[in-house]
Amino acid sequence: MPKKAKELSAKEVRDLNTPGLYAVGGVAGLQIQIKTPTSKSWVLRTKVGDKRRDFGLGGFPDIGLAQARERAREYKEKILNGIDPVAEKQANRSKLIADKARGVTFQELAQGYIKKQSAEYKTARQGQKLVSHLETYVFPHIGKMAAADIQMPHIVAMLEPIWETKTETATRVRQHVEKILSLAIANKIRSDENPAKWRGMLEHSTLPKATKVSKVQHLAALPVEDMPDFWQSLKASQGMGALALQFIVLAACRSGEARGAKWEEIDLQRKIWSIPADRMKAGKDHVIPLTDELLTLLESVPKMGAYIFSNTKGGQLSDVAVQKAAKKIREGITPHGFRSTFKDWCRKHTAYADEVSELQLAHVNGDSTRAAYARDGLLDKRRQLMTEWARYCEQGHTRQMGGKVQAIGGVR
Hints:
Helices cover 49% and strands 11% of the residues. The chain is built from 17 helices and nine strands. Helix 5 packs across helix 6 (152-163), helix 6 (152-163) runs antiparallel to helix 7 (167-186) and helix 9 packs across helix 17 (379-395).
């Protein structure tokens, strides 16, 4: 029979300072482990089955002698009943974590998604649009719900009000919600299938297919043949909106790029306009050649602040002001549509390689275009192209040689 350890008093335990393991008595196998005079902890050494194991019972003095003996007795009782105290503790901890995870709301989960997506987006505007969509269409419906509790009827109720009236927006909203709930599944926050998936889930709901509800609405573009007449009317128009629209047409740029243009971006000596990456849809710095027509236009713009096209307070001109300038001349035409008009003109009236106009439009998706952009941006070639475009807008024809109209540009 093993020797029974002497029962130490609380004072005797406090006075132990030499490093080592000391049996304290009261419960067989209960010991105090001393690493330094200020580092002491309780250990229960006992058998589980046919193996001897050590169980940590906590640190001293947070756990006193009486409490350590009580814990040791509880552990031994569990072992006698076939329960592994450590395994039980781990199971309880896992359950606690799982219970806490189940309480994570959709909105809390979405914050991490917003942060991740915003870091990956090319422009700050994309991140702002994501937040706006979630705050407007999602959070009021399921934001405060536990992510684990969201089911398909909740998603359908959220999407129905905008599914047929704002189909493109609704589709993007659904995709974001699906990704956020996928994060919940990946992080063990929910175990059910993703209710925002289309295939296998929402396709069986009352929502019709998005492709059957809404066709893509292209921004209205002016026919190429009508450009000269429109241009004459635009030149006769007054106001900063009309000047900005002239600039948009001659540069074939986006409305936001022109309205956000600052005088500091203009290099008169090199005759170029440098647009920083954070204002470009593709997230790349972009250079636009300034033709004589564009330079003349810039000379006519009054300087009222940092922005080239500014409002009466010196701030950035609104998109509405530019749209009004176009609408005043021809109903249904949008500023962005002139990029399509320009592209149609390039195809119908010039023989420039497609990559030249694609670079002017800041479309750098194709391999050849990307390579040309990396090389020199075809700046001189684009300057020639835009000079011919300005001539077409003004005179209504391409370059004439020997009395015959000839496609300009040629193949590089």
